Structure formats: structure tokens, C-alpha cells
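re: that complex we talked abt at group meeting.

here r the seqs, copy pasted straight from the sheet so there may be weird spacing, ignore it
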Amino acid sequence: MSKTEQPTEIRTKPFRRLFSGEGWFGFMLTTPALVAVLIVVFVPFINSFWLSFQRYDLARPQNDAFIGLGNYIKLLGDPRYLGSLKASATFSLVSVVFEIVLGIGIAMVLNKSFKGQGFVRGLMILPWAMPSVVNAAMWKWIFNADYGALNALVTQLGIVQDYQIWLANPVASMSLLILANVWKETPFTAILVLAALQTVPEDLYESARVDGASAWQQFFLITLPLIAPVVMVVGLLQSIWGFHHPFELAYIVTGGGPYSTTELIPLRVYAQTFRSLRFGYGASIAYLTSLLLLFPALAYIRYSYKKVLEY
Amino acid sequence: MKIEKKGLFVLMILVMALTACAPKAVETEQAAEPVEADPEPTEAEVEAETEDPVVETETITVIFPKHEAEWADVYEPRIKQFEEETGIKVALIQSDWDSVADQIIPEMATGGSAYDVVEFDNGWVNEWCGAGWTTPLDDYMPAGFTDGMIPGLVDLFTCPDGTLHGVVWNNDTRFFYYNEAKLSEAGFEAPPTTWEEFVEQSQSAVAAGVVEYGMDPYWNQEWSLMNEFHFWTYAFGGEVVDKEGCFLFNTDPNTLAGLEFAIESLNNGVSNPAGMTYDQANAQNLFLTGNSLFFPQGISGLKPLADDETISSVAGEIEIGLVPAGGKSLTLPEAFAIPATSEHKEAAWKFIEYMTSVESNVVIAKEIGLLPIWTDLYTDADLTAQYPHWAGFYAQLDNVRGLSTLTWYGDFVDIGQTEFHKALAGVQTAQEALDNMASGLAEFECVP
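got the structure back, here u go
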């Protein structure tokens, strides 16, 4: 085989495999799913991306037109969008830090053998398994200024003297939204980290103990490097979800208030798209935010893999 | 092996094809049912079929909200009766207002035909009329159909071209409620007639330990916060926009006075500051625990709720008054409309006609105390015996007003709720809030 023929051979091989014998059958079986994915994911994706370059205002269709980057340029000077971006970044990053620290801690506890271990593991998944709307309604009741459980708890513990209107304070309301999110999402981190912990060979710890390594040294030099790939993936997922998922939580607990300080990106998209009926502008919020997330995400992946390889 | 795989593949294709065909099969089954049940129809049935052959087997999809006032199940039994009487099947979708709005608006805007009868909120009238999303009902309703309806409710759903596009199913007019027992305990014989008296009575009752606050407002940052903006504006005689949609809210001294009163009430002990985070249900619950003296904008069904000892601690204590200083009360009626794209307009009209009829109004009013849309029912002996407090509604009914009807109402709410909430929180003054609203909405100045 000549050098010039080789790449052609490599290129054609997968196609040959695809349309011969087993490959053909596999392809036929996956075709319906592939078509379904194309229809329900790819088409709306392209359609909404195209929409983001247009003024597509359902309440004022006479103004509809292709405006190129107009929506994106307008967004960069839109204080409500920038405020939402800041709120979402705060919400997502602080949540992720707590979810990872607590998730690793919980996973390490659950990795030990103790009586009722299975029951506790099952119990721990409950917050994550709870429907988001139920979770949000529960926290809204807990944070209620007049009859919420949080006020009862902190006043009875003597932490504060009087009942507080938590959700009327921008800092408190953002902190409590983060608390509610961490409570719900930490089990996901814990489950994945627990799975990773179970792959760490016990021999490594025994050798370390023989060498006189302390518990902290064992954690930082053995455990953390070995679970780092999983922690990295979880951290990335949670960061992205922090931007896109907490719609129900913010909508029900604060409604974006007080005075839009907890108006996370999904709420902004919702308000612009379904309330003001600016579908083009709403789409551009979603795409610009995704784009802004893409670069730090890529940098994070690159940095984290480098670290993992170093270990 | 190969045969097995091919067989599996064919089976899979068959299953998919059958699944895709399933809904059609159900429809055919439903359509065939009456024929199987009675293969030889009577003369009367044949006549009815000849008169209205399409409606017999039609299915219409109806979507409207389920509100907190609907504490007993009244609509479903009524709809079942409609199905029995007309033979038209109804696929009913009911959920909270926001969910309903989220389902309807994209469907209407994109020209979908999923619904035959839809919720038509009074805040949407201008927007929908302009976009041509609804069907003029004049082509379907009999002559003189609206005679006998409260004229204001007919006007609210009439488009600028003079055609009626919605018939009210929920006459959601708000009223001024007060706790007579606690007011008396605080040393006052009558509810306030001015806003100064409102403050004085509130502060006295709080000082005497009779109540915690003068009122529990519902000023959470949400869509309905701008309903409250309208109420306080109207209560002080203010204006939001003129007929051409030109801004008045940022220059009208009465609008400013209304907002300043609301803001000040949070500082002078009249309003519960927690109201900044409450929705209507939260605030209403607190009023029913006896936490406050006044509930300035309560639903018409609040009185029966307040008198129900199983859910209220103030049974027998609540009365209806007038908005102080001759202020207007808010009316937020919701209507049924037929989308322009509906393929079952005749059947949809029959549904609307049935559900908004005098008979349906009586049944629903008796069950949950919903206000009728027919003026004669306000003097109906049975209803007035059941709801003697309706007498208290009459004087206010002459002095009510709806929300601003603007094609840009969504933007008005989006910007207004943030600025109003910021002012309520004391972060900016009322005038700053109004100026910021005007600047944020500048592109809509003088757009109706």
C-alpha cells in the first residue's frame, strides 16, 4: 500500500464497516433514534440559533427582520441581562464550590462501613430525586418571613432576636437560593464521587499508613488525585447546570426579587421570550450565555486534565 | 441469525408505525361509538343530526386557569353536563394562570390550532386584537346576546373595530375588605373614608395590640405586582397612559402620590414589610388569621372563605367597604375566546355560550361565590339570600377599572415590577422609579 493510498483506506474503512453485515444492521437499528434526535434536538437548535439573529417579536410582527448581530450587541449594553449574568455566575460558582466540598465529604463518610450504610445512602439521594417544583415550594415555605421554619430555628437558637424577611434582602435571598440549590444538587456530586472512591485500591492507603502518612496526606496525595477526573466532570456539569437549571427554584422562591437581584439567566430568557414575546432576543440571551460559558469551560477542562495527568 | 435480526428489525418498524397511528385509531373509535350504541336513531335524533351534524361528534380543547377562588370543583361537573347536552366532547386543560399563559401565548403567536377555547386575559386584549389571534364572536352569537351583561365587561373585550372577541367567565373584580370586629376593638365604628383615616385606624389598631399590621400587602416581585401598581395609581386618581399610549405615569402627581403612599406604608407600620415577599395567597392567608385590619383588594369569593371556620380564624368578622377617598377598585376579568386558527369554531362558541349563560352563572355563583356577569343576577332572590354581602359590592361596582390595555404590556410589567419593587424596598424614591420606568420603556412612548 502506498503512502498516498493509506489515508483513503483509513477514511473508507468505517463506511465499509457501517454498510456491511453487522454494521448495516446496527446502523438500521439506530437510524430511528438518530432521526428522532435530529428532529427534536438539532432542528430546534439551528432554528433558535437563526432566530437569535432576527428581530422576532410576536407582539409586533410588523417589525420582524434579520438584524445580524443586533440582538447580541444590544445584550452587551442591557443592564438587566448583565445583572442576570452576574447573579447566575455568583449562584453557579458558589453553589459548585459547596457542592464539591460537601459532596466529597459525604461520599467519604458513606464509603466507610457502618451499620445502616445502605439506608443512609438511599436517604441521601432523596433531595436530588425530589421534583424541582416540590423542592422550591418547600424552601419557599421554610424562608417565609412570618411562619417559616428558618426564622423559628434561628430565633430559638438565639442567633437572631427577631424574625427576618430573608427574601427581601438581596444578599440573604441569593445566599438562601444557593443553600436550596446546594441541598438539592450535592447528592449528585456525592454519588459520583462515592463511585470513584470505590475504585481506589485499599493497598495504596495501607502502604501510605506504613510509610507514616497522616489522614490529610492520604487524602491529598492518594484520594484526591484518583477521584480528580470525576470531580472535574461533576464540577463542570454543576457549573453549567447552575446557569441553566435553577428556573423553578428562582421562579418559585424569589421570582427574581428583590428588585431583580436574583433574576437568574433562565428567568431573564423566560421573561423576554414568553412575557415580552421577543423570541429573537430571548434566543440571543441563551446563545450568548452559552458562548460565554463555553470558553471558561474549555479552559477548565484543559487545566483540569493537565492536573489529572500531572497526578 | 440473519433472519432473526431482520425479523426484529421488521417488528421494530411495525411497532413504530402502530404507535404513530394510535391517536387516529382512538378518534375513529370515539366517532364510531354512538352508531354502535343505537344503530337505529329516533326521528328526533335524525332531525337533530340534520340540523347540526358536525357538532355531534366534535372534540374541542379548552384551556383556562384554575384560581384560588375555585375552592370547590365547579367547572368540571358543568362541562360534563355540557357534553351530555350537546354531544360535544371537551378536552379540558386547567392549571395556574402562569402555566396557562405559557401554553397559550406561544401557540397563538405561532398560529397553532391546538386549542379551540382559550383564556383571554384583560391585559392581553390590545395585543391580541392587533395581532388578529382571536375570532370575532359577533359572527356566532345570537343578536342581543350581550344585552343584560355588565356593560363594562363587554367593553373590555371589544376590539378597536367594535367586534366582541371574548365573553367573561371570571368576573374577577376586587373589593375592599376590613375586619369589623377588630376595627371596633380598636375603637372605630366605621371603615376609613380617606387614606389618612386608613393610616390612623391602622396605627391605632397596631398600637392597641389588636392586629400586627394595618394590611398584609402582596408585593412580591412577580407579574401581579403591576396589578398592585395599577390599584394604588387608580386609588389615588392617577393615570398610567393616555388613549394613545403616551406616558402619564411619570408626570401625574396622583400616580406619584399612590406609589409614595404604598412605600410609606412599609415604614409607618401600616403595611407588613414581609409583604414585599408575599403573593396574593400568602397575604390572604394572613388576613384570615386576623393578622391585619384591611385587605384592600380581595377577590369576590373572599367573604365565604373568611366565614368558613375550617380555614379562617376571623369567621363572622369580615365586612366589605369601599376603597377610601372614592378610589377605584381593580377589575381583572378573564374571558373565553376562540383562536382564529380553531377548526371547531361553532362547537367552541356553543361551549362559551353554555359556560357563560345565566344558568351556569347561577350554579357557579352558588358553589363558590363567583360574581355573575349578568346584571339581573345581582337581585336574584336565591343568590342575594345566600350572599347578603353582595349588597356591599354594588356601590364599588360602579367605580372599578381594568388594567392598562397596551400592546407592550409584557414590557411594562418586565420593567415596571423591578423599578416598583426597588422603590418599595427603599432603594430609590417613587419618582426615581417612575422616571426609570419611562426611560426603560422609551421605545413605547405613544404606542397604544
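couple things i noticed - Chain B touches chain A through 37 residues (CB under 8 Å). The CA atoms of residues 230 and 403 of chain B lie 7 Å apart.
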